[in-house]
Structure formats: C-alpha cells, structure tokens
Design brief:
The protein has 17 helices and no strands. With 307 residues, it is mainly alpha-helical. The radius of gyration is 24 Å and the shape is flat. It is found in: Cell membrane. Belongs to the binding-protein-dependent transport system permease family. Keywords: Cell membrane, Membrane, Transmembrane, Transmembrane helix, Transport.
Length: 307
C-alpha cells in the first residue's frame, strides 16, 4: 500500500508541469461551486439578509415540510418529471441517430455542411432561440400558421404558446433542434475511432450496413453512450430554466410549465422567500445526486462507469 502511494506521488512529481495546468480549473470549481455551498444553511433557517447566516434563527426542516405540503408541489413535480423524461427519451437518442446517419454519408462536402448547420444553433443563446420560435409560432405572419393555413389544416391562426396542450411538444422540439448537432460531435468522434478493418471483415461476411451499425458501431461507442446516459439521468430533475422561462412567459401555461427551477426563481427572487427557495433547490440537488449514484452503480455492472 505504501509502495503504491509512493509510486503515485513519484508519477505526479514527474508530471508536475502537466498537473499544474489543472490548478486553475480546481480553483475555479472551489471558488464558484464549493464556497457558495455555505448558502445551503439558509434552508434550515428563517434567513434574514439583515441578520446574516450567524444570527438568523434555526428552524430545522420547517421549509422542507412547507414545500412538500404546498398546493403546487405535485404540479411542479409532475411538470419537472414529464419534461425531463421527454427531453431524456427524445433528446438523448437524437444525437446518436444523427451521428449514425452522418457516418453513413459518403459525400464529405455535404456531410460537413449538414454538421455545420446542425451544430450552429448550440451557440445561440436561449433569448435568440426563443425569439425565433415565438416569431415562427406567432399568429401575426408566423410561418407555421401560414403553412398550416396554406395546407388547409387550420382555418385561422392558432396562438400555440397560449395552448397548454402544445407546450411540452414545443419545448422539447426546440431543445432537440438547438442541441442535437453539437451533442452528435462526441459520438461522431467515437465512431471515427473504430477500426475500419472491422467493417471490412463484416462486409466480406455479407453483413449489410444496418447490420454493421448494430454489430459494430453501436457496441463500439457504447462506453460513451453509457457515460452520457449516467450524466443525463443525474440531471433528470433539471428540466430546464432559461428555455421554460422564455417560452412560457404567458401565465396561462404555468400549470404545464412550472418546474422546480422556475418555482425557486419565482418564490426565492421575486417573493424574497430565500430559505424556502433554498430548501426546494436543495431537495432537487439531493435527489439528483441519488439518481447519479444509482445510474453509476448500474452502469458499473457493464464495466463502464464514471467512478
């Protein structure tokens, strides 16, 4: 055991110049991620900005109980879970499918054009994307309404962002469109690392392209898929904030759009209930850590895990 520790220290010392490059990232995480964690004490206090952390009275789990007993609790949890599951079920496999399709494209120029067009939306802020979507769905010369009317599917323009039944579909579709191209880059890089002799041997054996995808491509990139699936499950309760806040500006949509993040923002910032909002946010964080640990435990059985 001592010899193992000594060898590790020796290896670290020999790589001191490389290890030094990690220090700024560690400092960044420590300053902006760990030091602010002191603020979770507010969840167990009747926090007052005038009294501070030290003088605010301790109330135990009072704010957690208030959150669980709130009339809107089950609505918020339903919206959070439904939106998160939809994003996971549709948004997670979509980049994999795009990467598999692009990998089969033989024309390099066309492939690069498609890649560029598909990952450019990732670099647009949600303010721009939401404005684009709102403009397309507008009842006043919105392209979607014009198209549907031209096809005689509807007789008059619909205000899609005022109809609760359409909100989840609009939100998920917008998120997939924004991130599908950028997320597929990782899978394309993993596919590029597959030994081409495997495909040649499969072709000689008479395997079709579809068969090669299921027998070679997908198993080869499965470690990457598993790692990303672990992270996605860990973020299951992170239904979104910016996209929902911008697309669900209409109060009519609150029953289908209000999730934990937007609820914490509305109650904590707008209503200045800091302790209550901190308790709600801490509840989500604890559940997320549990989901991450559980997903990693299950993935470890396949030989691919984060730790």
């Amino acid at each position: 055991m001592l010899q193992t520790k000594t060898s590790r220290l020796t290896r670290l010392w020999r790589q001191w110049d490389i290890q030094l490059m990690v220090v700024p990232a560690l400092l960044f995480i420590f300053v902006f991620s760990y030091i602010p964690m002191y603020g979770v004490l507010m969840a167990f206090q009747d926090y007052s900005i005038f009294k501070g952390f030290l003088n605010s009275p301790w109330v135990g789990f009072k704010h957690f109980e208030m959150f669980f007993q709130a009339p809107e609790f089950w609505t918020i949890m339903r919206n959070t879970l439904v939106i998160s599951i939809l994003k996971l079920g549709i948004g997670f496999p979509a980049p994999i499918l795009l990467a598999l399709i692009l990998n089969e494209v033989g024309h390099r120029t066309f492939k690069r054009i498609v890649q560029t067009i598909s990952y450019l939306p990732h670099f647009l802020s949600w303010v721009i994307v939401s404005g684009f979507v709102i403009s397309m769905l507008s009842t006043d010369n919105g392209s979607i309404n014009i198209l549907l009317q031209a096809l005689h599917i509807i007789d008059e323009p619909l205000n899609f962002l005022s109809i609760p039944e359409y909100f989840w579909a609009i939100l998920v579709a917008t998120g997939v469109w924004k991130e599908i191209g950028f997320a597929s880059i990782v899978y394309l890089a993993a596919i590029a690392g597959i030994n081409p002799h495997l495909y040649e041997a499969a072709a000689i054996d008479g395997a079709s392209r579809i068969r090669q995808i299921f027998a070679i491509t997908l198993p080869s990139i499965m470690p990457v898929i598993i790692v990303f699936s672990i992270l996605a499950i860990g973020n299951l309760l992170n239904a979104g904030f910016e996209d929902i806040l911008l697309l669900a500006a209409n109060p009519v949509l609150r029953d289908v759009s209000d999730v934990i993040e937007t609820y914490v923002y509305r109650v904590g910032i707008n209503n200045s209930r800091f302790s209550y909002a901190t308790a709600a946010g801490l509840f989500k964080a604890v559940i997320s850590v549990g989901l991450l640990a559980g997903a990693n435990y299950l993935a470890r059985k396949s030989g691919n895990s984060l730790w």
